[in-house]
Amino acid sequence: MSRMYLSLGSNLGSRLSNLRRALHALAPQVRLTRLSGVYETDPWGYLEQPAFLNMAAAAETDLPPLDLLAHLKQVERSLGREPTFRYGPRSIDLDILFYDDAVLDLPGLQIPHPQLAGRPFVLVPLAELAPALVHPGLGLSVSTLLERSGAQGVRPYKRLEFGRRTYVMGILNLTPDSFSGDGLLAQPDPLEAALAQARRFVEAGADILDIGGESTRPGSQPVEAGEELGRILPVVRALAAESRAILSVDTYKARVAEEALLAGADWVNDVWGLRADPAMPATLARWNAPVILMHNRSKPANAEVRERLGGRYVGMQYADLLGEVKAELLESVQLARSAGVADGNILLDPGIGFGKTVEQNLELINRLGEIRALGYPVLLGASRKSFIGYTLDLPPGERLEGSAAAAVVGIVRGADIIRVHDVEFMARVARMTDAMVRRG
Questions:
Q1: Which of 305, 341, 377, 433 could link 311 by a cystine bridge, Cβ 3.0 to 4.6 Å?
Q2: Chain center to CA of 391
Q3: Are 211 and 234 a contacting pair, CB within 8 Å?
Q4: Are residues 132 and 179 in the same domain?
Q5: Residue 187: per-residue pLDDT
């Protein structure tokens, strides 16, 4: 079994989906061992074209170099790569960077890649995987080559700088039974309705779009993976090709997560904190995908539903609310880390409304700083939830002020992301709160 490093690039269509589908198509002849993050690169060689997405992969194979090259070319063709001019646009580009410590000069194949040392868009992701790897021809490490070339024009793709400001996640409910009445499946054309809403949200200030195909309100019925995929995949595919926002998929099923990631989703939002599907941690690690781990003690037996105010949980027992929520979140973190999910890909959500009483939800938001002190970015999802309705005696459509109050306190206590229905209003609330509490 030989070890190798590959470089991948795409600047046409759904670029992230192209990269992931190419990696998926390499199996079983190529076994991936590690993936770099994704980087966006200014056009090079020929400047009148879209920006590229680039990444690197560490892998193993039994194929000899020329057979490996033939396999890569076949994958490129299967994904629709068309012949073009030198340095022109391409749906997918796969290159062999290193193959063991071989130095080869064969017809149509040189290893190490002959232009590697002068290409920052190759060296930046490669240095993430193997900074100490020594170029067998030049005798220099990858980190040294990167230091010499610089990283000009290469930037992390859709990565957030937590602590700088509060990020806004807009909710896209591809369901018929959302608790807040915003389920898009009720629209005559759900896909067009979802795309229109997504565009409005991004224009209004959403940094992230959370796409869900299964309601999680108290008393809701589970949805099979196939039906969930039918609801969300058309939206994910369309937005991956056009939207600058991070695309998060709200699912606890590994099959749904993987299909969505292959379609171009960026994150997974797991409301069961990796406890519902044992295949989920490995799926996230395989695709190097960020995940939101939510605390959840929802039990149907403890759900009480009132027609006007909706569902809430009653009789939920915690001997130590914050202590138990933190401990259970850290158990989810351990599930992720044990599967190979990087710490930098983990976010936490205290699970407002999921297996907590009204009073417990209020306390949890007021003490959110104790969750943030665990060392991971925190998402707060309080928008329009029933604890607001039961506190103010208001139905979902009249909970804007209560949602804003929860968001403000959450931001003051350390929330990095607020998950909201009313994007324009809440983005303004977040900006104003940031102006007061993030002055440094």
A1: 305
A2: 33
A3: no
A4: no
A5: 78
Structure tokens, 307? 């027609």
162 is a domain residue: no
Mean pLDDT score, 227-249: 96
For residues 302 and 375, give the distance between their C-alpha atoms in angstroms, rounded to a whole number.
31
Residue 87 predicted with pLDDT over 80: no
Q: How far is CA 50 from CA 9, 12, 83, in A?
A: 12, 7, 17
Per-residue pLDDT, averaged over 59-82, amounts to 95
Structural domain boundaries, residue 91 = 2-156
Q: Which of 158, 231, 356, 419 is catalytic?
A: 419
Among 383, 376, 287, 281, smallest CA distance to 326 is for 376
Instruction: Determine what percent of the chain is predicted with pLDDT higher than 90.
Output: 82
Q: Is 158 a catalytic site residue?
A: no
d(CA 106, CA 108): 6
Q: How far is CA 195 from CA 106, 167, 200, 235, 348, in A?
A: 49, 20, 9, 7, 27
| 237 to 211, 295, 375: CA distances (angstroms) | 12, 29, 33
What tokens were used for 333?
């973190």
Residue with tokens 């796969």: 94
Same domain, 221 and 145: no
Distance from C-alpha of 273 to C-alpha of 335, rounded to nearest angstrom? 9
Range 31-64 burial, b when 16+ CB lie within 10 A, else e: ebeebbbbbbbebeeeeebeebbbbbbbbebebe
**Quick check: 360 and 321 in contact, CB under 8 A?**
yes
301 and 152 within one domain:
no
Contacts for 285 with CB less than 8 Å, ≥ 6 apart: 336, 339, 340, 341
Q: How many whole angstroms separate alpha carbon 281 and alpha carbon 335?
A: 7
Q: Which one of the listed residues 231, 385, 399, 413 is annotated catalytic?
A: 385
pLDDT in tens, 369-394: 999 999 999 999 999 999 999 999 99
Burial of 115 (0-12, 13-18, 19+ CB in 10 A): exposed
Domain boundary among 156, 191, 216: 156
pTM (2 decimals)? Answer: 0.93
Order of all β-strands in the sheet with 379-380: 346-349, 291-294, 267-270, 246-250, 208-212, 167-173, 417-420, 379-380
Indicate the number of domains in the chain: 2
C-alpha to C-alpha distances, 44 to 52, 56, 241, nearest whole angstrom: 9, 18, 21
Please confirm, yes or no, whether 385 is among the known catalytic residues: yes
What are the C-alpha distances in Å from 142 to residues 160, 213, 218? 26, 43, 52
Q: Are residues 309 and 218 in contact, defined by beta-carbon separation less than 8 angstroms?
A: no
